[in-house]
Design brief:
heterodimer; A: 116 residues; 0% strand; flat; B: 177 residues; Arc Repressor Mutant, subunit A; 2 domains; globular
């Protein structure tokens, strides 16, 4: 028996032994609900309000507090605990652009630190 | 006039993507399931996230690739991101001696678990090429487009993946003879 034929049988065996389960009954409903929450293309209208809010928060906290917060590097523990939140803040466009990674810089640093 | 045309194009794309979601949901979950190592809940999360990302990014889709290629590229990246997050959680938990993150309830069949573990131990390129081509039936050319690499690289990944899997799962190969 040729090696190619042997390999083909081996691959078929692997494929058949790892048949994926069908989507669960609630999959469609959850997906539909998420797709309905898709932001419209007018998301940019919210930018001035967001900028004003950020400025307001900065002024309220005071420059010293803002500087101190900016100067303090995020702890690795905080990064690990907040990974979902960090991930959620990713720009969708950047996630599908040419970049090979979808991780923000902090996450990439953590991964590098952990040698992953 | 151009704006109307753009809007119409987006609407057409939305309709196409909606049809795509309908016809590709099972395949998307299947691909995600194999890429994340047999965790059904994670696979559904990854597939959903990929659909949502595609839906949101639709206005930026320039039709330079097929809709399916574009979508599966998003899904493969999302699966990779999931694996990486899971690995970070696991390593972090080991480093801190804390309670280990609950392991994903992967497929409980022994053979299935062995195969998925062996596939999961491949390098990223080998794993993604192997799953796309040998497990999900993509052609080498399609896989190359999804992974944004050359068909030659895909063939190289496939060859090396097969060499490693043959060694790792040698008993299965013998049984099949």
């Amino acid at each position: 028996m040729s090696t190619e034929h042997d390999d083909a049988r081996f691959v078929v065996r692997l494929r058949q032994a790892t048949e994926a389960p069908a989507p669960s009954p609630g999959f469609d409903a959850r997906l539909a609900a998420r797709l309905e929450r898709r932001p419209t293309s007018t998301w940019w209208l919210a930018l001035p309000a967001a900028a004003a809010l950020a400025l307001g928060v900065g002024l309220w906290r005071g420059p010293a507090a803002v500087d101190a917060a900016d100067a303090a590097p995020p702890s690795v523990a905080a990064l690990a605990a907040d990974d979902d939140e960090i991930y959620a803040t990713l720009d969708i466009e950047s996630a599908v652009e040419e970049s090979d990674e979808v991780f923000p810089e902090d996450y990439a640093t953590l991964a590098e630190y952990l040698d992953i | 006039m151009e704006a109307v045309s753009d809007e119409r194009a987006t609407t057409t794309l939305e309709a196409r993507l909606a049809a795509f979601v309908d016809s590709h949901r099972a395949r998307a979950v299947s691909l995600a399931w194999r890429l994340v190592g047999g965790d059904a809940a994670a696979a559904e999360d990854v597939a959903q996230e990929a659909f949502v990302q595609a839906w949101r990014a639709l206005p930026t889709f320039r039709e330079e690739a097929k809709l399916s290629t574009w979508f599966y590229r998003i899904l493969v990246r999302e699966a990779h991101a999931w694996r990486r997050r899971a690995r970070i959680k696991q390593v972090w938990s080991e480093l801190t001696g804390g309670e280990a993150a609950p392991r994903a309830p992967v497929a409980d069949d022994g053979l299935q678990r062995r195969i998925l573990a062996a596939v999961g131990a491949l390098s990223r390129g080998q794993r993604e090429a192997f799953v796309l081509v040998h497990m999900e039936g993509f052609t080498v050319a399609e896989a190359a487009e999804v992974l944004k690499t050359s068909p030659g690289t895909i063939k190289s990944h496939l060859h090396r993946a097969l060499v490693r899997l043959r060694a790792e799962l040698a008993d299965l190969r013998e049984e099949g003879r």
